[in-house]
Design goal:
Elements (H helix, E strand, L loop, with lengths): L1 E7 L2 E7 L5 H6 L20 E4 L2 E4 L12 E3 L1 H4 L7 H8 L9 H14 L5 H7 L10 H17 L1
Parallel strand pairs: 1-5
Antiparallel strand pairs: 1-2, 3-4, 3-5
The structure holds FE2/S2 (inorganic) cluster (2 copies).
The site of one FE2/S2 (inorganic) cluster has 11 residues, from loops.
């Protein structure tokens, strides 16, 4: 066990944990952040994506040692029912989800893209979401929603 400090949704955290254990288990278990979902457990579906720095990463394949002193944002830190992020508003407006299981990971991939590239093209959005699987087939609506959010954010 080691002490591992990081910032989670802007709050300083210091956990005593196995540095080789994966971030997803810590988030969903001890820290109660259940918005990052377990899908494949093998860095292949994107359901568990969170933002570390300005990149979306698969929390199921991110060892704790690698996030020491980093900024982590989960879906819980993106927006809330009372104060949704523009991406969340746009996903609702475009009806860009069906079962919703993949959506928190997709929103985190999209949010990381907008951090690095506030005016993405459709091709940029498709590339950013390329590793996120959606079994419900909502991809086209999701791309439209991300472009809608980007243009809303640019107008603010
Ligand atoms: S559960 Fe992490 S990528 Fe699928
Ligand atoms: S909305 Fe159901 S898996 Fe994507």
């Amino acid at each position: 066990m080691s002490r591992i400090p990081f910032r989670l949704n802007g709050v300083e955290i210091d956990v005593d944990a196995d540095p080789d254990s994966m971030l997803l288990g810590l988030l969903r278990g001890r820290l109660g952040m259940t918005g990052a979902h377990f899908g494949c457990g093998a860095n292949e579906c994107g359901a568990c994506n969170v933002i570390v720095g300005d990149r979306a990463v698969a929390a199921c394949d991110t060892p704790l040692w690698s996030v020491a002193d980093k900024d982590i944002i989960t879906i819980e830190g993106l927006g809330s029912a009372q104060n949704p992020h523009p991406l969340q508003r746009a996903f609702i407006a475009e009806q860009a989800l069906q079962c919703g299981y993949c959506v928190s990971g997709i929103l985190m991939s999209a949010a990381a893209l907008l951090l690095r590239n506030p005016k993405p093209s459709s091709a940029d959005v498709k590339a950013a979401l390329d590793r996120n699987l959606c079994r419900c087939g909502s991809h086209n609506r999701m791309v439209r929603a991300v472009l809608r959010a980007a243009s809303e954010m640019a107008a603010q």
